[in-house]
Amino acid sequence: MCNDLESAGLVANVLAKPLHLSALISCFQDTLRIGTKRQVKRGESSTLRILLRGKQILVVDDNMVNRRVVEDALKKYGAIVTCLDSGKAALRMLNPPHSFDACFMDLQMPEMDGFKATRQIHSLESKFNLLNEAHWHTPILAMTANVIQVTNEECSKCGMDGYVAKPFQEEQLYFAATPFFEPG
């Protein structure tokens, strides 16, 4: 019955019980972006693997366990992952030119949070672009466990290109990465 309702276009998403916060958040994100993306089906991890294979991704999080979880999830799909524990370290690593294709950045870190690090990274890119007549832009995706307090507007204000909820699901990772990577 649920599939019939979705097929008929009467509902955008169906949530299964028991309800989990990450599933609810993912559902809201999917629903608010209807028409701009397709639904990833179970078993389509090969698509994510094609998308991320060989991509150099920087993961920045002050929590070692979180870094490991994100690193393992990205490596599972063939990404080459480098992990750092602070916004200041990310600033040094993402000073252009560098080899990273994207960065997943925690928002709440001591010394320099993800918002400030992102603004400074994009400032470095702007200076580099001006001096070298280039167009250097590193996609930075926020990672947060507290999606309810973080809005897409806050992330884009500081120059972030999107965000994913921690822990993220395959669909969230796919939709976050898709705009920045060409398959293959």
**What profile does the largest beta sheet have?**
5 strands, parallel
User: Which range does the strand content fall in?
Assistant: 5-15%
Helix content: 40-55%
Shape: globular
Distance between the termini: 37 Å
- Average residue-wise pLDDT: 79
Give the assembly state of these chains. single chain
Our Rg estimate from Cα atoms comes to 17 Å
Tally of DSSP β-strands: 5
What's the tally of helices? Answer: 8
Task: Write down the secondary-structure element order.
Answer: HHHEHEHEHEHEH
Uncertain residue ranges? 31-43
Order of strands across the main sheet: 2-1-3-4-5
Structural class: alpha/beta
Describe this entry's structure for a reader.
The protein is built from eight helices and five strands, in the order αααβαβαβαβαβα. By secondary structure, the protein is an alpha/beta fold. A five-stranded parallel sheet has the order 2-1-3-4-5. Strand 3, helix 6 and strand 4 form a beta-alpha-beta unit.
Q: What does the secondary structure layout of this molecule look like, with pairings?
A:
Blueprint: H1 2-7, H2 21-32, H3 45-52, E1 56-60, H4 64-76, E2 80-84, H5 87-93, E3 102-106, H6 114-132, E4 140-144, H7 152-157, E5 162-165, H8 170-177
Parallel strand pairs: 1-2, 1-3, 3-4, 4-5
Could you provide a short overview of the structure?
This protein is an alpha/beta fold and 184 residues long. The chain has eight helices and five strands.
Jot down its keywords.
5 strands, 5-stranded parallel β-sheet, 13% strand
